[in-house]
Design goal:
With 88 residues, the chain is an alpha+beta fold. The chain has two helices and two strands. Strands 1-2 form a two-stranded antiparallel ribbon. 14% of the residues are buried.
């Protein structure tokens, strides 16, 4: 009985993971600059090398990954990296 429960739980976890991966693959995303709250950025910039290191709200160099099309709807949001970020 215990083996059946473990097998069922494992199978459920595998199916759940596969379904989440399929949804993630179908969802297109983009980097959105200029809308990040301090400490909530997704990745490095020229000023630091770690996610969660943004020092100020709405810094034009900081970005967060959002569903495609959303960034253009956010005040101050742009999908274009600032010129100084492109050099780094």
């Amino acid at each position: 009985m215990k083996k059946n429960v473990i097998a069922a739980a494992t199978l459920a976890a595998v199916i759940s993971f596969a379904a989440q991966a399929a949804v993630a693959d179908d969802m297109k995303t983009e980097n959105c600059y200029g809308v990040v709250k301090a400490g909530k950025n997704d990745c490095k910039t020229g000023a630091h090398s770690c996610a969660g290191s943004a020092k100020a709200d709405n810094d034009k160099a900081e970005w967060v990954k959002v569903p495609a099309g959303l960034c253009d709807k956010l005040t101050g949001g742009t999908t274009e990296a600032p010129a100084e970020e492109m050099k780094k």
